[in-house]
Amino acid sequence: xxxxxxxxxxxxxxxxxxxxxxxxxxxxxxxxxxxxxxxxxxxxxxxxxxxxxxxxxxxxxxxxxxxxxxxxxxxxxxxxxxxxxxxxxxxxxxxxxxxxxxxxxxxxxxxxxxxxxxxxxxxxxxxxxxxxxxxxxxxxxxxxxxxxxxxxxxxxxxxxxxxxxxxxxxxxxxxxxxxxxxxxxxxxxxxxxxxxxxxxxxxxxxxxxxxxxxxxxxxxxxxxxxxxxxxxxxxxxxxxxxxxxxxxxx
Length: 250
Prior knowledge:
- Helix content is 79%, strand content 0%.
- The chain contains 13 helices and no strands.
- The protein has helices at residues 2-15, 28-34, 38-58, 63-78, 81-95, 99-107, 113-132, 135-151, 153-159, 168-172, 177-194, 197-222, 227-249.
- α8 runs antiparallel to α13.
- The longest helix is centred in the C-terminal third of the chain and has 26 residues, at 197-222.
- The N and C termini lie far apart (40 Å).
């Protein structure tokens, strides 16, 4: 039980800006193991964003504005961790001529044209989707999308080699197959509890396909995965799930 609590604290500290102390003696393998609880922390993030959105709607804020403010609040909560990864991936893959240049661009903290466009498209899609989802399903949809979007990350981590020997992904350590299965199982269970079964299954399929596409593109572009690739994959999955749920439930 202590190990699970340590993993929860580690995952929370990494995925959010909440002041969560790391467990004593935390090591690389501890962080790799903590990835099994990424979906649980993701579900909590989604719930916070959804409740904030509903509060704004309840006091008369228009749906589109409420969605924008809620998504902005979510970015503050997470430190825009995954959004930063999406932007870096878009800049690197779009602007680099070879693998070395792509990796160099991805490490550059400056935002380029491709990254800006990726963020605009992703934010606009999530904004429109969230505004279209009715009040009774806003929180549930966000819980499922954030859980499933993070539940596929360990699978990418174990299925793809490191594109560079240093960096966030390499330093974080590689989870094993059991961790990936547990993370996927927790994410699927959360989605099933939050949504009608057919919608939960659709979201899970969307997350899996998004992860597969991102993994294949990353392998082709830079030879494997980095922390930015994992962040970008979460954003692609989350956005895809919300758009599909809005089309189905809105």
